[in-house]
Amino acid sequence: MPVRTAHQPGKESQMDTRVLARPAAPRKLRMTLTAGQAVAAARNEVRAAIRAWDVPVDLSVAVLLTSELVGNALRQEATTAVELVISCAYRQLQVDVYDSAPAVALPAGAAVTDQAAQGIMLLRRLSTSWGYCRTPVGRAGHFTLMF
């Protein structure tokens, strides 16, 4: 049972009014998705993580950009799987997609009507940041959404 004390002038308690960013602790999921259902599975995993972690980002934007990263990874190479990493820390959601493609994300001189170029335009316009980098076994694409 809580102990109550009488009010004493000048001894008011200070209320801690700090607000923690959601989620309070860094979160991370990593999974391998097979090529046949990779885009749909990635969308479902991102949607589930955002809801479970109560991340205040636009769900439709996160799902759309995830589809673009996974679709681009699968278009670049006839791969059997991609690795999806979803993380949330420091007021940002980040989605990474790893593949084993030796090519760069967008060939130099690609036409704006090209499907990959349209995906790049979506990443550029809707995310806080995005990019591609080489890895020891291929490349990784990512985007972040700040909240």
Would you mind describing this structure in some detail?
By secondary structure, the protein is α+β, with helices and mostly antiparallel strands. The protein has a single domain (27-146), classed as Histidine kinase-like ATPase, C-terminal domain (Heat Shock Protein 90), CATH 3.30.565.10. Helices cover 31% and strands 28% of the residues. It contains three helices and five strands, in the order E-H-H-E-E-H-E-E. The chain has a five-stranded antiparallel sheet with strand order 1-2-3-5-4. The longest helix is centred in the middle third of the chain and has 18 residues, at 59-76. The protein is globular.
Structural class: alpha+beta
Number of continuous helical runs: 3
Binned strand content: 25-35%
The radius of gyration is 21 Å
CA(first)-CA(last) distance: 40 Å
